[in-house]
Amino acid sequence: xxxxxxxxxxxxxxxxxxxxxxxxxxxxxxxxxxxxxxxxxxxxxxxxxxxxxxxxxxxxxxxxxxxxxxxxxxxxxxxxxxxxxxxxxxxxxxxxxxxxxxxxxxxxxxxxxxxxxxxxxxxxxxxxxxxxxxxxxxxxxxxxxxxxxxxxxxxxxxxxxxxxxxxxxxxxxxxx
Amino acid sequence: xxxxxxxxxxxxxxxxxxxxxxxxxxxxxxxxxxxxxxxxxxxxxxxxxxxxxxxxxxxxxxxxxxxxxxxxxxxxxxxxxxxxxxxxxxxxxxxxxxxxxxxxxxxxxxxxxxxxxxxxxxxxxxxxxxxxxxxxxxxxxxxxxxxxxxxxxxxxxxxxxxxxxxxxxxxxxxxxxxxxxxxxxxxxxxxxxxxxxxxxxxxxxxxxxxxxxxxxxxxxxxxxxxxxxxxxxxxxxxxxxxxxxxxxxxxxxxxxxxxxxxxxxxxxxxxxxxxxxxxxxxxxxxxxxxxxxxxxxxxxxxxxxxxxxxxxxxxxxxxxxxxxxxxxxxxxxxxxxxxxxxxxxxxx
Amino acid sequence: xxxxxxxxxxxxxxxxxxxxxxxxxxxxxxxxxxxxxxxxxxxxxxxxxxxxxxxxxxxxxxxxxxxxxxxxxxxxxxxxxxxxxxxxxxxxxxxxxxxxxxxxxxx
Lengths: 176, 348, 107
Known about the structure:
The complex is a heterotrimer.
Chain A: H1 2-22, H2 26-46, H3 50-75, H4 87-110, E1 116-117, H5 126-135, H6 138-161
Helix pairs in contact in A: 1-2, 2-3
Chain B: H1 3-39, H2 55-65, H3 76-92, H4 120-130, H5 132-141, H6 145-176, H7 181-188, H8 204-217, H9 229-232, H10 242-267, H11 285-313, H12 319-346
Helix pairs in contact in B: 1-2, 1-10, 1-11, 2-10, 3-5, 3-10, 5-6, 6-7, 6-8, 6-12, 8-10, 8-12, 10-11
Chain C: H1 2-5, E1 9-10, H2 11-31, H3 35-60, H4 63-94
Helix pairs in contact in C: 2-3, 3-4
């Protein structure tokens, strides 16, 4: 069952990611990315991270990607023009991608002691997660909240900077 | 129990609950038409069947038989998939709602809930947040300025109010110490109405916030800006006709029912009776099984009644008023509620 | 039938999926010409790394791996808010989203 679900949703992930590259309209790319993120949520669930699976759907699929589609709709950006990219990208970028993938793949294949995942594995409860988060990692948590505050202020400042014809800044600062 | 039996039982439960949900949607529409009619001093539909009770079936048949128009300028793939997303998300979230006590059916099956999930509340919130895509894509792919405006309004409104909605539920979760909907209900069920979260838990502020945010989330009056007829000729579903329009319509009412179910579970004691354990369980096994469902449905019905009542009473907000209300009043109030609840829980 | 149902998946498959997704993200970053899509490729890379974190958290039974993903999500949310605001500001100034045409430092 785990195998079937893994293959199914890993397939969705890869198909979505490849579709993101192939589509020329940003809204199609955005929807492919939503597919990737939602399938990733299922994979998290398979790995026993149920809270993260829910957070993935709520934060990524439900807030961040909605903002992306919102911006695409707002700017009504048309199809992109195909170019081959800069010379630097062609000369260094593509070989670098191949090298990264190769290195990672060799590392993973030769790694020892990696276990297996099955459906009967323990699920990390939200309680355990929050206990560690709020007791041991409280400082990073608070720092992140300050980061979010700064991001809100920054987004508001950026949005206010213009002539104010676009919608109010609140809409863009919400995906917390 | 074998896997095959499990699948068959689950399939049966899904089928039964889907049919009940669709019937519920159909009769919520009728309820709304009747009630709004009486509020506006007229009768509402009363021709088809006794008291107009067969009206929903006729309406359904009508939308099936109507011609399905697809405008030439729409972006077809998204135009076709948008109503499916909207209705799908509206129907799926009922899967984690428990309707009755955890009574064990044959083979230890849970008869009154499709799936008992540890993070049931988060699942409902997640599915609701994905439902935005139905509306947003419908508006965008219709290639119509009214639709696009409706979709833009809707996505901004839903993202904004989701925050207040989520924060208003935190107080309840703090009190229950769990995200499991069954645990939340059982925590407030001990002494009936006095221990319901809305009264005993001092969560009435949260309930008010939830109510407001839920009206905005389901695009209902007084926050029905995305489909404001007088400004946008129907908003995001302007270009939709026949069954596809009906799917948006059903999605809206399905979401109303979902919101009612969540309010019932979180604030109104779920399937438990208002008298709590003061009177013992009835002797008759059938009555014992049906009482929880009776209470659950009654509570959801009251919530839907309130929905329609508000729609018949309040005028529509302006868009900037809506945004101001959400961000300047509801969200700070929700945060205050969280702080208050946690302080109370800590120093009780 | 039960043999299929109780199949296990090696952890390395998850890691491999994550690596491939990451490479696809880098590739998208290089070949996409639309500012928003480029930004989406960054999100794809973040997601791929998140999958690795969750996988390792499962492998070593560490809750902290999952919490790191939580932090990444929060940062990604902040990043999306600011990034999209910047994209809108750029669009206002240039009326285009093609990265090839946004090649001047001054307005």
